[in-house]
Amino acid sequence: MKKRFFLKNLAVFLLPIMVPMILLGSLSIAVLQSYIKNEISSSHIRQLKQTKEHLELMLNEMDSLILTLDNHSKINNVLGNLLENELPKYEDIVPGEMLQAFLNAPANARPYIHSIYVYYRNDHGLFVSSNVGVANLNSYWDTGWYDDYRNHDGKAEIWTEPRNIKQYSFEKDEKRIVTVYRKLHTRDGMIALNLSRDYIEDILRSLAVSSEQCVLVFNEKGQLLFSSSMPDDLKQMPIVQAQEDHAKESLLALQSHSDSFIVNQVNSNRYGWEYFSIVPKKSLFRVPTQLSTATLLLLLVSLVVSMLLAYYFTSLNYNRLSSMMSIIDSAVRGKPLPPLPVTIKDEYGYILHNILTTFIEQNYLKVQLSEQKYRLQAAKLLALQSQINPHFLYNTLNAIYWEVFKLTAKPNQGTEMIENLSYILDYSLSSPAQTVTLQEEIDHTQSYIRIQKFRHKDKFEVIWKGNHEEIQHFKIVKLLLQPLVENSIYHGIKETTTRVVIRIKIMLRGNRLRISVTDNGMGIEKDRLAEIRRLLSEGCESPGHIGLFNTNIRLKLSYGEPYGIAIKSKHGFGTLISFDIPVAAAPHYSFPLYCQQEED
């Protein structure tokens, strides 16, 4: 008891001190982190877009080559003649030298271009290189590009491969290049543009926002093409896959063995390249981290001070409060209460005097409130049920029935409709508080459906399903099923021109009876459905669904708060309305429940 009282006092001292501090510190950290994240995302996305534009500007060199080699018929024929003849003809030598000069010009003028290869399919393994002119695959030192071209699936027009090449055997290090392939359409062939990885990576480093930033470029296969730098922790991490799994996030945090990284991404639709900016998280969130540490230290100091104050006041007031709690406990258990204090010396005496003088009055008021709540519930139930059907129509319908009968001197469609309506009114008005069997409720609903059939002709049909023989004599509150069927008919036929199918399913599940009404009408829009569900949960009413909300309220009043209506709907597909009611075992009878498919 004393421990609990101490904790309460501790909370009293802690809340005024710590809550503002926690809120202020959390808000400051959150705002600062949000600002940093937005700034990081914006600046890095801009930098990645600038890098993308810069690299694609380099790759535009391919477009001029395509326009010349694929669309210029004379150059196309000269190149084709050079490659189709194992030994060049005299008249092709000069054009061939001009073609080599044309390819060699961008390779020499652009430091990021290592070489350019042009290949048309031929029987001699010949191709044109910007370095040597016409070359043979059987003797040329770089043929890896041809293997990549031959093994390509043939669907993509442009694709990229990172390669390492070595022209001479005595070279220690291989040259790192990226080959961009592009198909030629006039003839069966392609252009291979070889880019220097070292030169482009120097450009990436010059464009980096900070020295700790790492810029990576991957091709459509997830192969690394260029990197400004690559920390050892990132080499084993699936960066591309991780970013795909979080495609909806502007920032992605990657965790390695020793550090966390913030990742941004930009995609190139034309070449299928993915550009990543990776920055160590600790370098970006250094200020929020320091602010969080300071906040935690202040909270710790506040906790210590609050504990000392709480201990002091707990020791001071515990005995008086313990005496008061003992008196309250005696009053609750019906034990004799101590006499009222003669004089009131302090606030504790005042509280004790008021507790003793008002305890009996409070108990009496609770009993009265409980009785009034019960009467209000019963009155509300009767009022809701009487709201459904006006009483004066019943006697009037009997007179109308005989007048219609006189017109034809025999039963007709009109008398049949009046009979069904009279049965519905009699069922609704007789003993509104009583329960009925499930079979009686279904018979009543069948009469309502027959009337609607006369009115709406073939615009809807009703299908019944359920394990009926077991549950036909279960007692339920009347007028639960018909309002739901009315809701499906009214809103289904109103908003669609197709034939509406209404399925009524009644099943026994354990100790509960599940009743559901499904239709294939237009359904309910998402916002309207959310509003209806909110009103149902709050026990309110809606002008557009009086029967639905009335039934929901009567279910809750009759069986308790958990037994309300559940509604599911999708606009354009239909609506499902269902509810459960508790049942008890009922005697078994031999004749079956009337639940069959309604005839058209």
UniProtKB/TrEMBL annotation:
Pfam families: HATPase_c, His_kinase. It is found in: Cell membrane. It comes from the Bacteria. CDD domains: PDC1_HK_sensor (cd18773). The keyword Zinc does not apply. The keyword Coiled coil does not apply. Residues 479-583 form the Histidine kinase/HSP90-like ATPase domain. Its EC number is 2.7.13.3. Residues 379-460 form the Signal transduction histidine kinase internal region domain. Gene3D superfamilies: Histidine kinase-like ATPase, C-terminal domain. One of its GO terms (molecular function) is protein histidine kinase activity. It is a multi-pass membrane protein. The chain crosses the membrane at residues 12-36, 291-314. Coiled coil: none annotated. Keywords: ATP-binding, Cell membrane, Kinase, Membrane, Nucleotide-binding, Phosphoprotein, Transferase, Transmembrane, Transmembrane helix, Two-component regulatory system. This is Sensor histidine kinase.
